[in-house]
Amino acid sequence: MIFTDWETGNLIPQDDTTPIVHGSKTVSDLGPYWHSYQADDVNTHNAPANQIVYQTQSWFCRPDGTTGAVLWASTTLFPGDVNGEFFMTRGHFHTQPTHGELIIVAKGKGLLLLADRLGNQSSVDLAPGVTYYIDGSLAHRTINTGTEPLIFWCSWPADCGHDYESIESGTVFQPVLKSSHKA
User: Fold this and answer.
1) How many distinct structural domains can be found in the chain?
2) Mode of pairing for the β-strands spanning 81-82 and 85-86
3) Does the pLDDT at position 40 exceed 80?
4) H and E: helices and strands count for the chain
5) Would 26 be classed as within a structural domain?
6) CB 54, CB 30: distance < 8 Å
7) Residue range of the domain that includes 126
8) Which helix (H) or strand (E) holds 155?
9) What's the whole-number average pLDDT of the chain?
10) Cβ neighbour number for residue 24 with a 10 Å cutoff
């Protein structure tokens, strides 16, 4: 069992046998996902390469890939940009397109980008209280368009599978730029 702190996004184990897996991604970790980033040229971006873009906390109540299991995680996506492109998560497709995902927003504001494999893209505005079901056939990426951390939770079937490689090509999502975004 865990305790979900709705205010901070922290997942807190309630016993010694419940591991919480912590992760983070930096500007350079997301290098292939930015539309204007070149890791070997510090003059091509305005954010330090080691700046944390987002942090995750995941509760794997059953091993990843277990049929019938449901997993739970929080993400804190910080405000910021790389050359005017808002901070974002990597985004992914599910390898099992019949397996969707649920997102619940606690704090901040942003966008949930959705795209099919033909490149058709749409978005959903994110704000505290928004709960959205993501169809398993759609790629999804979260963008922080605000000035404070965007904190949200996700729940997904453990056997949905994740395809990050298709997103890394840079052709699935169009960048969301500060200059063209309406606040």
Assistant:
1) 1
2) antiparallel
3) no
4) 1, 15
5) yes
6) no
7) 19-168
8) strand 150-157
9) 90
10) 11
State the pTM of this model: 0.91
AA identity, residue 138: L
User: Would 179 be classed as within a structural domain?
Assistant: no
Q: Which residues pair with 131 in a beta bridge?
A: 104
- Per-residue buried b or exposed e for 90-123, using 16+ beta carbons within 10 Å of the residue's own CB: bbbbbeeeebbbebbbbbbbbbbbbbeeeeeeee
DSSP element (H, E) containing 52: strand 52-59
Q: Which residues contact 81 (CB under 8 A, 6 or more apart)?
A: 46, 47, 87, 178
Q: Do residues 137 and 160 lie in contact, with contact meaning Cβ atoms separated by under 8 Å? A: no
Task: Please list the helix, strand and coil fractions of the chain in percent, rounded to the nearest 5, in that order.
Answer: 5, 40, 50
**Contact criterion met (CB below 8 Å) for 113 and 105:** no
Q: Rounded to whole angstroms, how far apart are CA atoms 120 and 182?
A: 21
Q: Residue 167 has what DSSP assignment?
A: H
pLDDT at 47: 82
Dihedral sign, Cα of residue 39, residue 42, residue 45, residue 46: positive
**Within a domain: 116:** yes
Confidence bin at 128 (pLDDT 50/70/90): very high
127 vs 33: CA distance, rounded Å: 24
Q: Which two tokens stand for residue 16?
A: 């010694």
Q: Is residue 4 part of a domain?
A: no
Whether the per-residue pLDDT at 123 is higher than 60: the answer is yes
3-class SS at 29? coil
